[in-house]
Amino acid sequence: MTSTESTLSSTAAGRGAGDRRRWFALAIVMTAAFMDLVDVTIVNIAIPSIQRDAGASFSQIQWITAGYALAFAAGLITGGRLGDIHGRKRLFLIGIGGFTLASALCGFAVNPEMLVASRILQGAMAALMVPQVLSIVHATFPAHERGKVFGLFGAIVGLGAVSGPLLGALLTEWNLFGLEWRPIFLINLPVGVGAFLLGRPFITESRAPRALRLDLVGVALVTLGLLMLLYPLTRGRELGWPLWGYASMAGALVVFATLVAYERRKTRLDGSPLVELSLFRVKSFAAGIAVQTVFGVGLGIFFLVWTLYMQVGLGWSALRAGLTGVPFSLAVSTAAGMSVQKLVPRFGRKVLQAGALVMGAGVLLYIWESDRYGLAIASWQMALPLVVMGVGMGLIVAPLTDAVLSEVPREHSGSASGLINTVQQMGNALGLGLVSVVFFGEIGDRLTPTQVGPAFAHAFQYALGWVAAVLAVIFLLMFALPRRPAQHMEGAEADTEKEPAGEPEPVLVP
Fold it and tell me: Where is the Major facilitator superfamily (MFS) profile domain (predicted)?
């Protein structure tokens, strides 16, 4: 980009900061972010309905969720760079237009295969759309206003986490026009079309003065490695764990080793690798990436298994399952706010470690209650373990990014934050793949109607045992985090008016 173009971009951003229209632009990008957040949570609650109505196999319902996470993770960093190079407004509009089209394809899918393919497309379009949201905020609002804006964004995240499951449950339960689960996707159409049409006049275009180049080879290697790992995991049980599956998973390690070698070469050639390997020399960052990945695995396992346990194992309706999860969502939002504002500034890393222990205690309590009450367990009896788990999760999710970024050099903060979000989504996809092993592997292939409930309850307890083990690993990894995590990104905003170069700012995704 020429210096003239950079100046014009900065001037446009300056005009936007003094223009009331920037608040319309904020509402538009926040709506898109909300739509993505709700879409992530809304699908889980409808999975049993999709399975019944579309005749999807267990591996296909895993890919309905894992395919989205995988495509989102693989394209997240590249989506941010494309916005820096070609314009954040342009990529945002392409992303939201594609996301809306993919939602329509999901809603009108004629078979499970089409639904899986449409969900993968939806994840890829989200990877173009989501990274632009905070980049557009940076380019549109001056530093002194961003604290208020990011506070609004945090509220949107909390609202999305609470309303997603409830909205999914209501739309599934109402069976609008006899469409069963399809309205959970079709509801995106009017929202997406409206955001696309309004975004064109109200969002100001901006680019990064020094954008990094694309690393499409790196994206291809990451995607190939994950596919070679995830596909055998999801299909292996149904196919009797064939030899090619083990060969594929072993080959994934070779692909990841090739990725590391290529990224080193890419760094030497043009300094714009997909993964900035030098960041892993920072002990706290390396440990934080491990925490994000493992945490994503645990969440991926829990949310899918939890939905299947309530609706298939216990025979509850989607609405009852959605309402049962409300205490969990509220506890996460409340604890997250307290963690950042009050607890972490005073107690530092111990808050995150306490969160892992508290969440683990909630998981163990849930296992005990599920075993004690069996199929007669009531929603109110689940409230206590869910609140305990929610408090623990809230203590972790809000301050974790700042903790991971605390010792990262400021010039690499953009690359680091993009990588954090990417590995969280990759961990989520891996966790969804592992559901075949830790949940479906415990369920017999041929169950009579009377065996379904006990089998699913037993498998739920077994899977939660794995989640508890994951949280124990997270607790130990957190010893490598700084004792007093700095509010890294907030400080960055106060220190500079520059547009972020290279990668997107951190995006909170439940």
Answer: 25-484
